[in-house]
């Protein structure tokens, strides 16, 4: 009943001409793939408008990597949800572990961002994940529970249906260390059960939960074929069209 969704988080990579080349390659390559998997690219802000133009008449969707939680105003250097919407974004990555760790984003800030995105008709790709220390000291599940409960505070079941959750164990991001399919499946099942408790069984069954953290063409199929894994949020491997397309193909 759930469709797989593969999103590419470009992070702070690619200037305008490099981005145009990569998007063109992805767009051309995806036409040859007969897949049901939905593909999303999330390039840097400055490339979004061009990306939206290039992706017209393609089924690749567009997302941003961050936004501010206020509607507008004196927030020098920030970008709002409605601005993202106005240049053609459908999605926005929120709560990425790099935003949490490097830019001190708290669960409360991420909750405000989730709410503002929904208000502006943008779909959040809401990221959660534990550090290696939290996994090893046995607090992983409680950390995830707090991230999810606080990140989704005051969000209705109807709004939840527009959110994708991305489980990205911090220790697997950019390290080449992937969670094994069993490890990832266990956490995805845990997250889905938590959503069933917070909302309903129906909401939990409909929720798309992506896995992220060193997803590559050689491990994507096995991860995505797990019952509670509905696609991937890809970093490094989305920066080349070939490897990104291979991962989309692995989604079926
Ligand atoms: P890598 O695929 O490079 O590990 O990055 C994952 C990630 O952070 C996607 O948001």
Small molecules (ligands, ions, cofactors) in the structure: 1,3-dihydroxyacetonephosphate
Radius of gyration: 17 Å
The proportion of residues forming helix, as a percent range, comes to: 40-55%
Overall tally of structural domains: 1
Q: Which percent band covers the strand fraction?
A: 5-15%
Number of helices: 12
Gross morphology: globular
Order of helices and strands: EHEHEHEHHEHHHEHHEHEH
Low-confidence stretches: none
Q: Give the class-level CATH name.
A: Alpha Beta
CATH superfamily: Aldolase class I
Instruction: Give the second-level CATH assignment, the architecture.
Output: Alpha-Beta Barrel
Give the neighbour order of strands across the main sheet: 1-2-3-4-5-6-7-8
Describe the 3D structure.
It is a single chain. The protein is of the alpha/beta class. The chain has a single domain, classed as Alpha-Beta Barrel (TIM Barrel), CATH 3.20.20.70. Helix content is 43%, strand content 15%. The chain has twelve helices and eight strands. Strands 1-2-3-4-5-6-7-8 form an eight-stranded parallel barrel, surrounded by five helices. α1 (16-30) packs parallel to α2 (48-55) and α5 packs parallel to α7. Bound molecules: 1,3-dihydroxyacetonephosphate. Residues 9, 96, 168, 173-174, 212-215, 233-237 line the site of 1,3-dihydroxyacetonephosphate (13P).
Condensed summary:
The chain is α/β, with parallel strands linked by helices and 252 residues long. It contains 12 helices and 8 strands. The protein has an 8-stranded parallel beta barrel, surrounded by 5 helices.
């Amino acid at each position: 009943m759930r469709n797989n969704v593969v999103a590419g988080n470009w992070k702070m990579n690619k200037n305008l001409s490099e981005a145009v080349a990569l998007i063109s390659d992805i767009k051309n390559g995806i036409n040859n793939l007969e897949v049901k998997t939905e593909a999303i690219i999330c390039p840097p802000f400055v490339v979004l408008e061009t990306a939206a133009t290039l992706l017209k008449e393609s089924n690749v969707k567009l997302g941003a990597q961050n936004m501010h939680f206020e509607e507008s105003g004196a927030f020098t250097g920030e970008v709002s949800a409605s601005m993202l919407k106005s240049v053609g974004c459908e999605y926005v990555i929120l709560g990425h572990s790099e935003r949490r760790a490097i830019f001190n984003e708290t669960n409360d800030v991420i909750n405000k961002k989730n709410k503002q995105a929904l208000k502006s008709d943008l779909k959040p790709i809401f990221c959660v994940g534990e550090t290696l220390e939290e996994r090893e000291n046995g607090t992983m599940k409680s950390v995830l529970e707090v991230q999810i409960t606080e990140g989704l505070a005051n969000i209705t079941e109807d709004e939840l249906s527009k959110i994708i959750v991305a489980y990205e164990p911090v220790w697997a991001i950019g390290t080449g260390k992937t969670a094994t399919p069993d490890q990832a499946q266990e956490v995805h099942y845990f997250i889905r059960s938590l959503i069933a408790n917070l909302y309903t069984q129906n909401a939990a069954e409909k929720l798309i939960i992506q896995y992220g953290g060193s997803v590559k063409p050689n491990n994507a199929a096995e991860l995505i074929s797990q019952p509670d894994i509905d696609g991937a949020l890809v970093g490094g491997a989305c920066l080349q069209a070939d490897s990104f397309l291979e991962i989309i193909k692995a989604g079926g």
